[in-house]
Automatic annotation (TrEMBL):
It comes from the Bacteria. This is DUF3347 domain-containing protein. Residues 1-23 form the signal peptide. Pfam families: DUF3347. Keywords: Signal. Residues 44-134 form the DUF3347 domain.
Amino acid sequence: MKNSITAVLAAIAIVFSVNTITANEIKLQTTTEDVLASGELQSVFDNYFAVKDALIKSDAKSTSAKAASLLTAIGAVKMDKLKSNEHTVWMKVVKKLTADAKAISSNTDIKKQRESFKSLSKNTYDLIKVSNPDQPIYKQYCPMADADWLSKEKAVKNPYYGSSMLTCGNVVETIK
């Protein structure tokens, strides 16, 4: 009888150990997927910032080239790798992001590029807001252009007016 009880207790201990190991593996897998999903949009964000920086310099040719790279990054996003909230927003904004990036890349008129950048910024904001960036992102606003943009830096560098009004604007939100 004692041996039977000992065997049953040993079996129960093994089952609990296996369940704990399985639960830890599932938790680790979920955490890894979250890290990968966050990285899935990073190229889109990096290319957005490159477009913004080219607009700050009022360099239409460079802006066009950076927007072409953004277009490539948008096309490379693997939707099945996105977290569910990112996927929901992605589905809402991907067509507009693509259209804005195409409009900027196919144009060498800086005024038209800046006009398309307004919409690009709005849709990128919606996406970055749900992606929980690993560093603070600053949403900035220019009253003269009546438009927002995103920046990795708190210091205002206005992409809508470049050097003519470089510091026009202010930080309206910090996304963490």
